[in-house]
Amino acid sequence: MNILCGYNVNIDSVYRVNGPEISELLETFEAAEILYKIENPPGKIFSESDFVAGLAYCMKNGCGAEWLVFEQSVFEFLKSRYFGKSLVRMGGNAGIMANALSQLGASRVIPNVAVPSKTQLSLFSKKAIYFPDTFTSLEKNAETPPEENTGAAFSSQEPIHFVFDFSEGETFSLYGTEIRVPRENRFIATCDHLNLRLFVNPAFEQYALQHACEIDGVLISGFHLLLENYPNGRTYKTILDDTFNQLRSWKARNDKLQIHLEFGHFASKEIANSVFLKFAKFSDSLGMNEDELAMLYNLHGVPGEELLQMQSGAVADAAFRLATRHGLKKLLIHTREFVLAVFKTDFKFNSESNPELESKREPELEAELQRATGEKLEALEFGVRCAGAYAASGRLEGRKFVEEEALRLQESTFGRKQIKAFLRAFNGKTLRQGAYALRGDYIICMLPTLLSRSPVTTVGLGDTLTAGTFLRRLELDV
Question: 0.70 exceeded by the pTM?
Fold first, then answer.
């Protein structure tokens, strides 16, 4: 399978900060300024004090946050102080999914890379990742990507997300007041102005146009990074239009091209709604977690509390409403405890309006229904095993490795309970490792995830599950 991955690829610089270190850092800044910014978080980083206040705020409250860095001097401060002693790894949904696809057996994976620097390229899998010739030549050109005419030197820097992890129980001095961190979390200072506008490397775009007929699928993500307005006068709406037109041009060259859009944590509900509505009918599938599903409340009407609690009845109801109201072909919801998919089918049963229908189905139609559902569950099962193996080991080293690692994992107990709740609520049936139910011309199916007692990583699990499911689905469709 040949797959394109766009749009957000970046470098994650992960650093674990302790109490004494933040205490020492705070002492280098004026107390009044930092305390004011902790009480009134700026939400963006224009100065070193903004960064320090944001980190102290998150540690004080045990919360997570991601603030954008808008000043070159702050980028230099963070890079010189932390990059060399950080864990440097692949970042960005598209980058993580590209690596997963490569390791899981895709034939060729072509990622969009805004800044193909030596560091960025070194983080890619060596198996099936392909960079167009003109793409890698950029690396030799002072590591500077082609840009829009913004005139901003800051945009040509490597996109680095500085991730500051902190642990529950760490203590630090906030100008004489002892603070104990209430829970583990992270603060992210993001220097990534190209991905914020879904920058497309010209070599990636050219390759996609020239080889569209050879491409089987496209995984797109990064829309959650969009801003409402940009310094050059553009808005997120113009960027969405450009992206839509680009995807439509690829689809025009290959009507069998399968396009999956993966959501992310949007800071703006308005942008989240706009992205969904723009691509709902055009995409062959969409993916999100329960938080992102809850953000789309005004489009499905299911209150967010039960969604955030991962109650299968509420999740299935919200996903079904989204799919039917907006004409989705397939919607994938991935949570820590279970995964659930809603997909359109040619079957026209309506078990809600006719409770006796279950006993009247013709055997051959029932068999065909189970066959179609079984394929969807098979793809989901593979994605679940990939995510579980990656969580347990921090690696993906081929399918044999995934299958062996998955055998050591346990099904989510909570997820299995939610399967039973789903069966009751939707008059469903069990199949393979999961369950399914038919509503109108949509099938809802779900299965529990596989969990590790001592996970090596919890980052990128949704992307890994999505990549594995998407790849297996393409294979089964062929």
Answer: yes
